[in-house]
Design a protein that fits this description.
- This protein is mainly α.
- The chain has one domain (3-87).
- It is built from two helices and no strands.
- The longest helix has 37 residues, at 15-51.
- The chain starts with 14 loop residues before the first helix and ends with a helix.
- The relative contact order is 0.04.
């Protein structure tokens, strides 16, 4: 039996196969570096967003959710609420 006929043993293939595998390794390493750089930039942007000025004081903000059964009632309630809130000082 010739050494090239034994599965898993013998030569590593033709020069073309070796070049192809080498190119795949280079592509994988390049892609991993690009992905790591993108992840780092994403984390940096997220940290910048967390530390940035919001333009308001969030400790003095009131939010609420009101669910009403009909669209007309929702619209009327929203309009009345906005009118009343706009009339408040501050």
């Amino acid at each position: 039996m010739h050494k090239d006929e034994i599965p898993g043993r013998g030569s590593t293939g033709s020069a073309q196969n070796r070049r192809f595998r080498g190119a795949l390794v280079v592509a994988e390493v390049s892609l991993s570096l690009v992905l790591m750089a993108a992840a780092g930039l994403t984390l940096k942007s997220f940290a910048h967003l967390l530390g940035g000025d919001l333009g308001l004081e969030p400790e003095h903000v009131l939010t609420m959710r009101v669910l009403l059964p009909h669209h007309k009632r929702q619209l009327a309630f929203s309009n009345q609420s906005i009118e009343r809130l706009e009339s408040l000082p501050g």
